[in-house]
Amino acid sequence: MNANVHFHSLVLDGVFTPPTASAAPVFQALPPPTDDEIAEVLEQVHARVQRLLRRRGRLPEEPGQADPVAEQLPLLAGYAAASIQGLVAGGPRSGHPVRRLRSAAAVVDTHKPRFARLEGFSLHANVALPAHARAGREHLCRYLLRPPLALERLTESSHGQLLYELAHPRADGTTHLLLDPLELLEKLAVLVPAPRTHLLRYHGVLAPHAAWRSLVVPRPVEAGGAEASAGVADAPARGLSPSAAGPARPDWAALLKRVFAVDVLHCPRCGGHRRIVAVHTRPETLRPLLARPGLAVPAAAPRASRSPPALAG
């Protein structure tokens, strides 16, 4: 739950060759990157970020540069600084590290393939999926869009403190974080995205204004179509086998069930499956329907407008 600035990127394991007058772009698979190539990419990212920060005067060694966040939102800036350092910013434990619970044996950090570090920057590119792995691709995409914490790993102790279980033990053996309620709110406040900030971006041939995007991304298929819009790896125009038929996207009831664990189409009385018969949004069509089971409510007469009350002198 610390403010660890990082990016999740989902990229294609290959490139598209230019289209012709009679054929769409063809996907050409490439071998996985080597450790040296990952290190070279990280060096380029490191150099470009340093150059961008220097141009905008945001490097720590740049003197006399004002921080607009600290000037406009000093409380949030203090929370962010404490979150980056793993400290508590407010309350009686201000300035102290977040309390951690460790296991008896520390976890050894072994060398990871396709992983590189450089002056606080790191790049990990060892997660890949085979072609046509729709379930795995959906799981990976949902992982990239996951919230900052999982509620099923957050429990409350008898003394009102919150215990959060980490997904994986850290290198020092930490398995849980112990937080007061206000400390948890402090950590979450830093992770709220800024207004009008895009959390999902598309690049390359998948970008919204890419010239080849309409030729690469399959169009949504109507119900009963021959195949589903599963992604570029499943498009038969690329020379691959078609995917199984299915809807282009989950409907609203499936999304509510996935996010809130509530099946709005399940009848609690008979256990059957509800279906939508019609949608009414106007009062003149709703009143006759509600009158049949005796649920009609007389329309309330609008109150007469009046001037605001005078303030006491």
Describe this structure as you would to a colleague.
- With 313 residues, this protein is α+β, with helices and mostly antiparallel strands.
- Among the domains are: 169 residues, no CATH class; 40 residues, no CATH class.
- The chain is built from eight helices and eight strands.
- Strands 3-8-7-6 form a four-stranded antiparallel beta sheet. The chain has a two-stranded antiparallel sheet with strand order 1-2. The chain has a two-stranded antiparallel sheet with strand order 4-5.
- α3 packs across α5.
- The radius of gyration is 27 Å and the shape is extended.
- The two termini are 51 Å apart.
- About 7% of the residues have low confidence.
Put the structure in a nutshell.
With 313 residues, the chain is an alpha+beta fold.
Layout of secondary structure:
Elements: E1 14-17, E2 26-29, H1 35-55, H2 68-72, H3 74-85, E3 99-102, E4 115-118, E5 121-124, H4 134-144, E6 154-156, E7 162-165, E8 174-179, H5 181-191, H6 213-216, H7 252-260, H8 283-291
Antiparallel strand pairs: 1-2, 3-8, 4-5, 6-7, 7-8
Helix pairs in contact: 3-5
Rg computed from alpha carbons, rounded to a whole number of angstroms = 27 Å
* pLDDT averaged residue by residue: 81
Q: What is the string of SSEs from the N terminus onward? A: EEHHHEEEHEEEHHHH
Helicity level: 25-40%
What is the straight-line distance between the termini? Answer: 51 Å
Main features:
two-stranded antiparallel sheet; 26% helix; 4-stranded antiparallel beta sheet; 8 helices; 313 residues; 8 strands; extended; alpha+beta; single chain
